[in-house]
Amino acid sequence: MTGVPAPWQQAQWRRLHQQRDSDQLPHALLLTGQAGLGLDDFARRFAQSLLCSAPTVEGPCGQCADCRQFAAGVHPDYQYLTLEENKKQIVVDQVRQLNAFALLTSRGDGRKVVVVSPADRMNVNAANSLLKTLEEPPGRVVMILVAHHLHLLPATIKSRCQQVKFAVPERAVAADWLQQRGHQQPEALLQLAQGAPCLAERMDDEALQARYAAVMEESLALMQGVRTPGELRAAWQSCEIDWLVKWSLSLLRDCIRCASRLPDGRFENPGWSKALQAAVSRVNFRQLFVVHDHLLDLDNQLDHPLNKDLLLDDVLLSWQSLSPGG
Q1: Contact 39/167 with Cβ under 8 angstroms?
Q2: Whole-angstrom Cα distance, residue 118 to residue 264?
Q3: Which of 146, 165, 181, 201 has the highest CB neighbour count under 10 A?
Q4: Would 325 be classed as within a structural domain?
Q5: Of 151, 167, 183, which closes a domain?
Q6: pLDDT tens-digit profile of 35-84?
Q7: Looking at the structure, do residues 39 and 188 belong to the same domain, yes or no?
Q8: Last residue within a domain, chosen from 141, 167, 193
């Protein structure tokens, strides 16, 4: 981790450091916001700053023994809990190990820091186990939870954390950040990533952009009855189901905007505004919301182990249901 927090993270960073400096930092923080805003990096940077021997308002010094240990992944007072390889959920045994770590005596100035990310992927037993530690936090332990789907976290967990919210930055701010990091088409990338700069950075890939354009065209073709699910199934098989669902939701929101006669400037996929006008001309307005809500439910289930072929068919048939004969 290098440099200072991103521009859209500055206010949250300053507020937390003011709390730290005044010894008013809560024992549990919950960082929330949509994926692609760099929350995980923020959490680890702040954790390092809490353990750093000479932190500044910009962040950890990066030079002290604590920072060197942190960078090497061997700091004795820090633990990072995430999904195990090929797993969809954080399980109770992982949290029990975390709880045991929290009870150990600190080897530094008395502070220990743990990061749980993504906290919204804990199963019920894991969440209940963590709750016990949140209810009776040991010593000077600071727990930092990261969640992109806040509704998936139990209310009991949320109520015991101070929430720190992050919002999508203004396009100009995000585009400038991407340009400074060497990306040549920031606006196009932000369009793909629904305005999330860190996600946009990961999407600077020609093959992925070509796949996005094809899904846009093919979805509208399905909607107009020009193509059938069977014809597109093989083509969509190569697309990550997460991207497919998110792009479908984005395009459906634009369909609703178009049917509501909102100006093109409000569209998430402005390059398809003319095609959208033709596609929605004969669509039942209520059905757009029905399909959107159905795919939104599907999106919320993607963290669970589901059959990809069935999910793919679901998306294809959802678009077909909007066609004239659907």
Answers
A1: no
A2: 35
A3: 146
A4: no
A5: 167
A6: 999 999 999 999 999 999 998 888 899 999 999 999 999 999 999 999 99
A7: no
A8: 167
Q: Domain residues for 182? A: 169-204
Asked if residue 1 has pLDDT above 50, the reply is: no
CB-facing half-sphere around the CA of 132: CA atoms within 13 A: 13
Q: Same structural domain for residues 43 and 159?
A: yes
What does the pLDDT look like over 84-113, one tens digit per residue? 988 889 999 999 999 999 988 888 667 899
- Same domain as 13, residue 131: yes
State the pTM of this model: 0.82
31 and 159: one domain? yes
Q: What's the chain look like in SS3?
A: CCCCCCHHHHHHHHHHHHHHHCCCCCCEEEEECCCCCCHHHHHHHHHHHHHCCCCECCECCCCCHHHHHHHHCCCCCEEEECCCCCCCCECHHHHHHHHHHHHCCCCCCCEEEEEECCHHHECHHHHHHHHHHHHCCCCEEEEEEEECCHHHCCHHHHHCCEEEECCCCCHHHHHHHHHHCCCCCHHHHHHHCCCCHHHHHHCCCHHHHHHHHHHHHHHHHHHCCCCCHHHHHHHHHCCCHHHHHHHHHHHHHHHHHHHCCCCHHHCCCHHHHHHHHHHHCCCCHHHHHHHHHHHHHHHHCCCCCCCHHHHHHHHHHHHHCCCCCC
- Name the average pLDDT for the chain: 90
Tens digits of per-residue pLDDT, 210-248? 898 899 999 999 998 889 999 999 889 888 888 899 899
CA-CA distance, 67 to 72, in Å (whole number)?
Answer: 9
Whether residue 21 sits in one domain with residue 147:
yes
* Phi, psi (deg, nearest 5) at residue 62: 80, -5
Kindly state whether residue 216 falls inside one of the protein's structural domains: yes
Q: How confident is the model at residue 303 (pLDDT cuts 50, 70, 90)?
A: low
What are 275-290's pLDDT values in tens digits?
A: 888 888 888 889 999 9
